[in-house]
Specification:
The chain contains 6 helices and 5 strands. With about 160 residues, it is α/β, with parallel strands linked by helices. The protein has a 5-stranded parallel beta sheet with strand order 3-2-1-4-5. The chain is globular and about 35 Å long.
């Protein structure tokens, strides 16, 4: 619950962050795709990525050209709605890029967060969290739960 309150209180500042740092982050990531863990050449198997605390999709948009499926999550419903609207405006269908409202630090008992138990949110090549860990009260728990979501040989990337 503390994480939900923290992210809800900071969502209004992200428009400024997107415009100020978006190009820097995008340029840096585009130059480091192989380092991040995304294969340079496609093997025919879809590359799947999960972006935890996706916000309006700044990192997802930067990495989209190198992945086939973006499954993202964030806590504030408003951020998730804006993210999904932006993906549709870009012409991307739900299966290519979408976000859900979810909190990995809230126990998923099946009733409160059924999506966390779904196959849709597991078996990723790349799982990332960017510019969010400093808001989390239990970062080690978050990182462990992110690690549970990647497939064998997958990568967790945490940036601050």
């Amino acid at each position: 619950m503390a994480n939900r309150m923290q992210f809800a209180s900071t969502e209004r500042v992200w428009g400024a962050v997107d415009s100020r740092f978006g190009k820097q982050i995008t340029d840096w990531l585009e130059g480091k795709v192989a380092w991040v863990g995304i294969p340079n050449e496609r093997s025919g198997t879809p590359v799947r990525m999960l972006d935890c605390a996706c916000g309006r999709g700044l990192v997802s948009k930067a990495l989209y050209p190198w992945v086939d499926e973006l499954h993202d999550m964030d806590i504030p419903a408003k951020m998730v709605t804006e993210y999904n609207k932006a993906a549709r405006v870009q012409g991307l269908i739900h299966e290519q890029m979408h976000a859900v409202e979810a909190d990995l630090l809230t126990p998923a008992d099946g009733d409160t967060q059924p999506l966390l138990n779904s196959e849709d949110l597991s078996n990723f090549d790349l799982v990332l969290v960017s510019m969010a860990i400093h808001h989390v009260h239990q970062p080690e728990v978050l990182l462990a739960r992110l690690a549970d979501r990647f497939k064998p040989g997958g990568v967790v990337l945490a940036t601050e």
